[in-house]
Amino acid sequence: MNARTLGRTLGIASHKTRWHVLERLRRSMGLLDFAPLEGVVEADEMALGGFAPGKRGFAGDNKTTVLVLVQRGSPRTRLVIVPDRRGATLVPAIERLVRPGSTMITDGHDGYLGLPAAGFAWTRIPHPRGGLARGAANRATPAADGVTSRFKRWLLGTYNKPPADLAPYLAEFCFRTEFRDNAQAAFSTLLGLAMTTPPTDRPSLGLGRRQ
Questions:
Q1: Percent residues over pLDDT 90 in the chain
Q2: Tell me: the pLDDT tens digits for 181-200?
Q3: For residue range 124-139, what is the model confidence (pLDDT) as tens digits?
């Protein structure tokens, strides 16, 4: 939910207060040191950002590239901003987030060529010549594609446009997948994290530091 909805739910009239509460909760979700993904893990990338004439996919300075990792048979997800789609970027990120010896499944992108040398089993499933048709059933990474679609709908449906700082929203989405089946654990974990999260400024609205 956005800050306005949170304020209505909790009975907080002050926009400054409800924004600080929501921001502290969201940023707290990024502090948890999750266990690595394991087993069979899909990897893909998504591009987030505004429209630029003549620019599609990952092209354009207005795009942010996010590595998408999903553990098959589980909702567990990792979304991390990466500067580019090169192997020197993607493989080290996977090494940090996925347990060695796991099986990685990707499309035909060459950025994953270094996975075997990094200690992963690798199944590469190139897209058919000419690309995938909308709704195609033979996708290389259906779980990762599903996460990409759900994240974009959630982000735009709640906040109307991608925020300038994506990291807290990516962390929130991953936190929710980690605790999707255990609401009580999610609540107690988040409460503990929020108690130690430092306050946040929002200079663009002229809001001071929360006391």
A1: 56
A2: 899 999 999 999 988 877 66
A3: 998 766 555 555 556 7
Is residue 209 scored above 60 in pLDDT?
A: no
Q: Are residues 10 and 55 in the same domain?
A: no
* Under 8 Å between Cβ of 82 and 45: yes
pTM: 0.81
Domain range for 48 is 40-127+138-172
Q: For the chain, what is the domain count? A: 2
* Neighbour tally for 75: CB within 10 Å: 15
Q: Are 168 and 189 found together in one domain?
A: no
Cβ atoms of residues 101 and 88 within 8 Å: no
Structural domain includes residue 81 = yes
* The amino acid at 94: I
Distances from the Cα of 97 to the Cαs of 52, 104, 179, 197, in angstroms? 32, 12, 17, 23
209 in a structural domain: no
Contact 40/102 with Cβ under 8 angstroms?
A: yes
Q: Is residue 164 part of a domain?
A: yes
Give the residue among 157, 125, 166 at the shortest CA–CA distance from 142: 125
Query: Is the domain of 24 the same as that of 88?
Result: no
